[in-house]
């Protein structure tokens, strides 16, 4: 595994990411559309992992995260989730993080399901939306929201090095 410092001024994102070779599968990152995407050598399109979205004029970072979650997540799931603070790891200065968790009724429903089904039923596992988001909100123009797709315990990119360019 090799760590690479990557950046794309067009979408405005820089990050350290891993290029990995497991013999049977190679994994690398590339910029696609408005996102840092993961690409597997055994096929398929690159899957977005970190998106870059503008915070609209007059919109708070929190409102932008909520708007993106609602736009990009299946309505039957998003209607049953609530924003919550994301507290894992340390936060770089100026960064706010949140996640979306099942509301009380949905959480109760998910707990009754067998674990593999419960895992697939949560938006983080379905790939339907961007369930975890880091809001980078410096003062002035160019404020961005960076939704980060979650899924594995050790990501192939370093969330601490995500930077808006």
Give an overview in words.
- By secondary structure, the chain is of the alpha+beta class.
- The protein has one domain.
- 21% of the residues lie in helices and 37% in strands.
- It contains five helices and eleven strands; from the N terminus they run E-E-E-E-E-E-H-H-E-E-H-H-H-E-E-E.
- It has helices at residues 61-72, 75-78, 104-111, 115-121, 123-126; strands at 2-8, 13-21, 26-32, 35-40, 47-51, 53-54, 81-85, 95-102, 132-136, 144-148, 163-164.
- Strands 1, 2, 3, 4, 5 and 11 form a six-stranded antiparallel sheet that branches.
- A hairpin with a 7-residue loop joins strand 9 (132-136) and strand 10 (144-148).
Protein structure class: alpha+beta
Report the span from N to C terminus.
26 Å
The helicity comes to 10-25%
Strand tally = 11
Brief overview:
The chain has 165 residues and is α+β, with helices and mostly antiparallel strands. It has five helices and eleven strands; from the N terminus they run ββββββααββαααβββ.
Q: What is the element layout, followed by pairings?
A:
Layout: E1 2-8, E2 13-21, E3 26-32, E4 35-40, E5 47-51, E6 53-54, H1 61-72, H2 75-78, E7 81-85, E8 95-102, H3 104-111, H4 115-121, H5 123-126, E9 132-136, E10 144-148, E11 163-164
Antiparallel strand pairs: 1-2, 2-3, 2-11, 3-4, 4-5, 6-10, 7-8, 8-9, 9-10
């Amino acid at each position: 595994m090799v760590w690479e410092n990557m950046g794309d001024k067009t979408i405005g994102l820089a990050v350290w990411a891993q290029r990995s070779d497991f013999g049977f599968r190679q994994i690398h990152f590339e910029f696609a559309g408005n996102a840092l995407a993961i690409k597997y050598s055994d096929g398929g399109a690159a899957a977005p992992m970190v998106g870059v979205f503008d915070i609209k004029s007059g919109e708070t970072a929190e409102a932008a995260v909520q708007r993106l979650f609602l736009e990009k997540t299946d309505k039957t799931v998003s209607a049953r989730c609530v924003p919550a603070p994301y507290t894992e790891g340390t936060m770089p200065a100026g960064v706010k993080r949140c996640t979306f968790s099942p509301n009380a009724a949905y959480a109760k429903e998910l707990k009754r399901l067998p674990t593999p089904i419960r895992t697939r039923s949560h938006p983080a596992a379905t790939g339907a939306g961007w369930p975890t988001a880091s809001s980078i909100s410096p003062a002035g123009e160019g404020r961005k929201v960076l939704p980060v797709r979650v899924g594995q315990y050790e990501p192939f990119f370093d969330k601490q090095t995500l930077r808006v360019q």
